[in-house]
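Whether sequence alone determines local backbone shape is best considered at the level of individual chains. When preparing material for the folding task, we compiled for one chain both its residues and its backbone structure tokens. No coordinates are needed to read the tokens, only the vocabulary itself. For completeness, the protein is quoted in full, as a sequence line and a line of structure tokens:
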Amino acid sequence: MKKERTLNILSLIFNFAIVLITINSIAYAFRTDIIRQNSYFEFDGFLSLRFFTNLSNILVAITSICVLIFNIKNAVRDEFKLPRWAVIFKFVGTVAVTVTFLTVACFLSPGIAFNGGNYFILFKGNSFFLHFLTPVLAIISFVFFEKTEKFSFRFVFLALIPILVYGIVYFVMVVIVQGWPDFYNLTFGGKNWMAPISAIMMLLATFAFASLEWLSQKKWIEKQNKKAG
């Protein structure tokens, strides 16, 4: 019981931190009392909500609130019970911000560096929280602190929904409507025929990330159960 109590408190702390950081990070785009020094992307006001980065952080914050409610309930009742739907929801949000983090780290930032820019520009200032800290907190809390019964592999496919929905909207707005610039460079400089290929690669990558996080949590739980036994 002592170990479960500790896990619940750690989960509570991490989820609370995710919510606070996200509120501050998203509100940053709407503040008029500061001078923003991010010249690479335009994040002002509601324009910031067209980026998967911001949407994925909002999603994981909402999922963290759901788990946080039960964290508080567990702390009051001195128990550790997280409903399956809440953990799966948190899993979906965690995968979404994982996609954000790895897209920046492995695709966008190398592209900037290749063109002579600073690799770390998308990890500076407010972007540090959106692109790095929140994803890391979400991954750690999901894998190590939050578990539920009967969380089978089939739920991995639910993690594809956010990227699939966003991908459709992005394709329509960039390729068909041409109302958004291709800020993620998924057409590789205006090659619209590359968009479907990029979409398939993103879905496959998301599936891989989701599978790895699901497996990591499963192995960690099995390891802890073996120690307890």
Summary: The mean pLDDT is 90.
